[in-house]
Design a protein that fits this description.
The chain is an alpha/beta fold and 317 residues long. The chain has helices at residues 3-12, 17-28, 34-41, 49-57, 77-90, 105-109, 114-119, 124-128, 134-137, 152-159, 169-175, 194-202, 220-233, 253-266, 281-287, 292-295, 301-314; strands at 64-68, 95-99, 139-141, 144-147, 183-187, 205-210, 239-245. It is 47% helix and 11% strand. Helix 2 packs across helix 3 (34-41), helix 5 packs across helix 17 (301-314) and helix 11 (169-175) runs parallel beside helix 12. Bound molecules: adenosine-5'-triphosphate and magnesium ion.
Length: 317
């Protein structure tokens, strides 16, 4: 935690150095003052651990659970889940990434040794089938924890329908580990089947990535209607964090116009985040087996985009 970050955190909340010290004292039972805050901000003294912890976690004692969802294929759900997870981890948060898509995209892109997980039966399907606990299958890779999946999850998606609580199984599994993390991120498949519904029931927050293209944006209202139904019947506090336009081609007039439409349509109802630009470096990162937000240069649009998104939604819970 450095002083610049602390200063940005304080200013974003409209607090003076005095006011910030007062808030910390109330929350943490300390006796900080304006001079102390100034020394942290100017890097004359390191930010103490309890202050850094407080800024990372706020007053939350259990993880926020963010699902990236969009029933349309190729809308960057998996890329967003993976890179947002790492962006949070780069901020010092404890992160669990849950792969709820049988395609196993984030499992593989995160660098999990899937063969060895499969050999031991340590995959999400086994957890949802009550054969393993979530803790049994979690692996730590490159600074985050991952709950991996494999293609057998597709079979489970059918067989679970004849079992009790088919849509509540992920929520139940996550309740065991929620206090161990600051952020849990769930990647979902490109349809509104039982796996996506498990994620919507388990989540506290939904992030909707969408490519601002004419045939992609029309899928958003259906997802919002599904979220509304889940709120009514299963998860009343489910929050829509917002829509994330991604793979945005700023130099095409069609995408620009589609983005403007998206902004106009949701201006009064759903937050639309700054778009993340399209870059060939994204597929290159996957090909090279690295995490874009960690491995690409700091001025790459994807790195800027995901770090900005993580910072923006970091303290909202
Ligand atoms: N900012 C970006 N610039 C360029 N390509 C990107 C960007 N973000 C993601 N991609 C690429 O777009 C493709 C689709 O992304 P991704 O797999 O994350 O979508 P998805 O919604 O998870 O797809 P599915 O519906 O199949 O699960 C991938 O090849 C990914 O590498
Ligand atoms: Mg995907």
């Amino acid at each position: 935690m450095d002083g610049e970050l602390l200063k940005a955190y304080r200013r974003k909340r409209g607090l003076s150095q005095d006011g910030f010290a007062e808030m910390l004292n109330a929350k943490l039972g300390r006796a900080y003052d304006k001079a102390k805050v100034s020394r942290w901000e100017n890097a004359k003294e390191p930010v103490p651990d309890p202050v850094a912890d407080f800024m990372r976690r706020g007053t939350r004692t259990r993880a926020r659970i963010i699902a990236t969802a969009n029933q349309k294929g190729g809308q960057t759900k998996s890329s967003t889940a993976l890179n947002l997870a790492h962006a949070f981890a780069m901020m010092g948060k404890r992160v669990l990434l849950v792969d709820a898509d049988p395609q196993a995209s984030v499992t593989l892109a995160a660098g999990v040794d899937l063969e060895s997980c499969m050999a031991n039966g340590n995959v999400l399907g086994a957890v949802l089938d009550e054969k393993k606990s979530l803790r049994d299958i979690i692996v730590s890779v490159n600074g985050i924890d991952v709950a991996p999946t494999d293609i057998t999850l597709a079979e489970f998606e059918v067989s679970v329908l004849s079992k009790p609580g088919p849509e509540k199984r992920l929520a139940r599994a996550l309740s065991d580990v929620r206090q161990d993390y600051d952020e849990i991120i769930i990647d979902t498949p490109p349809h509104l089947g039982v796996l996506t519904r498990n994620a919507l029931v388990a989540a506290t927050d939904i992030l909707i990535p969408v490519v601002p293209a004419p045939l992609d944006v029309p899928g958003v209202p259906l997802l919002l209607r599904t979220i509304e139904q889940i709120r009514i019947y299963e998860n009343p506090d489910l929050n829509v964090l917002g829509i994330l336009p991604n793979r945005f081609e700023a130099n095409t007039s069609v995408q620009q116009a589609t983005l403007q439409q998206l902004l106009a349509t949701y201006a009064d109802s759903v937050r639309v985040f700054e778009p993340i630009r399209k870059t060939t470096a994204m597929d290159q990162a996957v090909y090279n087996g690295v995490i874009a937000v960690r491995a690409l240069p700091k001025d790459n649009p994807v790195v800027i985009g995901y770090l900005r998104l993580a910072e923006e939604i970091s303290h909202e819970a």
